[in-house]
Amino acid sequence: MSKPVSRLDRIAVNPTICHGSPTIRGMRLRVQDVLELLASGMSYDEILTDYDELERDDLLAAIEYAALDSSARVLRVVA
Predict the structure, then answer these.
(1) What Cα–Cα distance (Å) separates residue 24 from each residue in 1, 2, 3, 78?
(2) Which of 40-44, 46-50, 66-70 has the lowest mean pLDDT?
(3) Which helix (H) or strand (E) holds 12?
(4) pTM, rounded to two decimals
(5) How many other CB atoms are found less than 10 A from the CB of residue 10?
(6) Mapping DSSP to helix (H, G, I), strand (E, B) and coil, where does residue 65 land?
(7) What is the pLDDT confidence band of residue 68, given thresholds at 50, 70 and 90?
(8) Would you give the end-to-end CA distance of the chain in angstroms?
């Protein structure tokens, strides 16, 4: 069985960006923002069209981060 792919390297925590909230690749787009877009019912394609700087793996990274964070298993590292 192969090891699951992790995309958490796309999530950055920097105290000088968005007050230290987890962001996508250090951009000023928080994981929370991406999750709210998904929760609103937007499809991946709609989000990627509206936010051309995002990639599909960024959306999957946000979901992976939320899944781990909801179970308190995320190690928060400040860059």
Answers:
(1) 29, 26, 23, 14
(2) 66-70
(3) strand 11-12
(4) 0.83
(5) 21
(6) helix
(7) confident
(8) 33
